[in-house]
Amino acid sequence: MSDDTEVHLEARLAEQDEFEPPESFVEQANVTDPGIEDEFEDNWPEAWERAADLLDWETDYDEVLVDDNEPFYEWFVGGELNASANCLDRHLDDRGDEPAIEWIGELGETRTYTYEELHREVNEFAAALRDQGVTEDDVVAMYMPMIPELPIAMLACARIGAPHAVVFAGFSADALAERMNASDSEHLVTVDGYYRRGDPLDHLSKAREGREQVDGDVTTVVVDRLGEESPADVAGGEHVYGDLVEEHAGATVEPVTRDAEDMLFLMYTSGTTGKPKGVKHTTGGYLSYVTWTSHAVLDVKPEDTYWCSADIGWITGHSYIVYGPLALGTTSVMYEGTPDYPDKDRLWEIVDDYDVTQLYTAPTAIRAFMKWGPEYPDRHDLSSLRLLGTVGEPINPRAWKWYYRHIGNEECPIVDTWWQTETGGMMITTLPALNTMKPGSAGPPLPGISADVIDPSGDPVEAGRAGHLVVNKPWPGMLRTLYKNDERFINEYWDEYSNPERDQWVYFPEDGAKIDDDGYITVLGRVDDVLNVSGHRLGTMEIESATVGVEGVAEAAVVGGDHEIKGEAVYAYVITEDGQEESEAFREEIIAAVEDAIGPIARPEQVIFTPELPKTRSGKIMRRLLEDIANGDELGNTSTLRNPDVVHDIQQKVSSE
Ligand code: WTA
């Protein structure tokens, strides 16, 4: 393309703020009936049957929604099903020989699991887990990177009715132990190690260190990922995954009948306080919801090769690599590596090689692609793509348009999907064949979802004004509670805006948002003390508590500063104790402590030593000011501070780093 045309195109896109669904997409889309919105409105909650209808039930449910003990809602009550049977067994007749998982390893090696093969290995591992003493309702912790054994272990657990609790492999040993203790988990499935940028990484030592801090005996299964290169050998008492599967070759395990409301899994996520929240998801409601949204929003069809580039250690991978796509019998791509190894065209090479039809990724990745430049996608044929998606953080219009143009060739709709660990699946997004897209705005709430933006007194805000995002009606994929902590569940999500006397229950996701005249919602970000670093949710309190745990630190405050690629980065302001040197070595010690407590994703971008923290007269740390300083922004009013002079000192320190 000549430079002139290029400039012309860029200019046209820069001005355009609304985009219609491409005709070629609409012609073949799963959901094309504009009446769907009214159907949900007129026939709520029964309209949700269409989600449940996408699954096979062993026993039909009696009631779609039971709401006599709010906010403990129950969905598809009386129904019975098994998630593993829905993701595997029911596809065997028609799609047994078709790929369920296409796995691409970090070193370029590949594995294909057909539905038949996946079914076989899930059965074998389910039999092995049973032999290890895992019974229905036992929580099994999984601490693994992006290898096929992770979804296999998840589905094996689902098969025998044992909820899984997957811990992101990048989390530290301490974080693993905390989650295993909190979930009463006595079983662990992990791996010897994995590759990063071609080098083998030891994971088993970390897993063992975590296991040692768990109360009670833990049975451990270790996947042999590294073979000869493994830095740690499996020790006595640990079982090798490959041996177990071999010992149970050909075994079959009847899927255990689960009630719709039985727990499918726990997923720990960050909140305002230091303790992670154990979000509980159920078999019937969650599985229906992720299957329905995969169908309606991601437009997944069995013959697709669909790719979500998230990590299964987070909710996006659970819902949209494993459960939603497999329930629909499609081919789900799983990539172990990073997008820039061996080169910055790795993702586009995979799209090209596998003829990927949908790509679902995060704004942080798109910002990196933009920075690297269009020459990387330009090297490949991306014409197999039909739909693009994003999730995890707000996407700015420039990044949206770059994605639309350079990856989608202006022929793919983009779904900007807002949701959370707690919501189970997507809540606010355009329907790709039905709604106009407005870059920067996620879109309207999905049909059947009732969301609004309100002011502190609970009234809807005017169009264009910022307020709090709330959800006014329950939905099938919603969390049911926080594990063994109903009280915290109510405090965290329902207390703020509900009015139990009037029987009004309002879910508060702790996000700020704006709404426009067409009801499109732009999510602005968290209003609690949770950071979003590269789309990963981190609690500032968890990072602060790791920081103050270092000997020589007197006090600390952690805030998020803007970051070009990551969205947000961690800034730690630290007051040292008398006699403690403010040295580079001490700074490194603090960073290492945060990595030990949480993991490298929480690594502070900057550690700033300060003699004082800006505080109000009542002694509250003014985090807003610390954020302004991190961003180099104009400072707001400092007159209410007890110690206004300190702000100037800190500002100078940050700008000189
Ligand atoms: C943010 C990830 C803007 C939001 C699925 C939410 C978003 C938090 C979007 C949940 C989006 C997610 N636009 N912000 N499309 N999607 N978020 O639990 O702040 O890891 O509360 O779930 O990510 O993060 P979580």
Provide an overview of this structure:
It contains 22 helices and 29 strands. With 657 residues, it is of the alpha/beta class. Among the domains are: 116-256, Rossmann fold (3-Layer(aba) Sandwich); 466-523, no CATH class; 529-656, 2-Layer Sandwich (GMP Synthetase, Chain A, domain 3), CATH 3.30.300.30. It has a seven-stranded mixed sheet, sandwiched between helices. A hairpin with a 3-residue loop joins strand 27 (553-563) and strand 28. Helix 9 packs across helix 10 and helix 15 (363-372) crosses helix 17. The protein is globular, with a radius of gyration of 25 Å. Residues 269, 314-316, 391-394, 416-421, 442, 509, 511, 523, 525-526, 532, 537 line the site of 5'-O-[(S)-ethoxy(hydroxy)phosphoryl]adenosine (WTA).
Could you give the topology of this structure?
Elements: H1 3-15, H2 23-26, H3 36-42, H4 49-52, E1 63-66, E2 74-77, E3 80-81, H5 83-87, H6 92-95, E4 99-104, E5 110-114, H7 115-131, E6 140-143, H8 149-160, E7 164-166, H9 173-182, E8 187-191, E9 193-196, E10 199-202, H10 204-212, E11 219-223, E12 238-240, H11 241-247, E13 258-259, E14 263-269, E15 277-282, H12 283-296, E16 305-308, H13 315-327, E17 331-335, H14 346-354, E18 358-361, H15 363-372, H16 375-378, E19 387-391, H17 397-407, E20 414-417, E21 451-454, E22 467-471, H18 486-493, E23 511-515, E24 521-526, E25 530-533, E26 536-539, H19 540-548, E27 553-563, E28 567-576, H20 584-597, E29 606-609, H21 623-631, H22 645-655
Parallel strand pairs: 4-17, 6-7, 6-8, 7-14, 8-11, 11-12, 16-17, 16-18, 18-19, 19-20, 28-29
Antiparallel strand pairs: 1-2, 3-13, 4-5, 9-10, 14-15, 21-22, 22-23, 23-24, 25-26, 27-28
The structure holds 5'-O-[(S)-ethoxy(hydroxy)phosphoryl]adenosine.
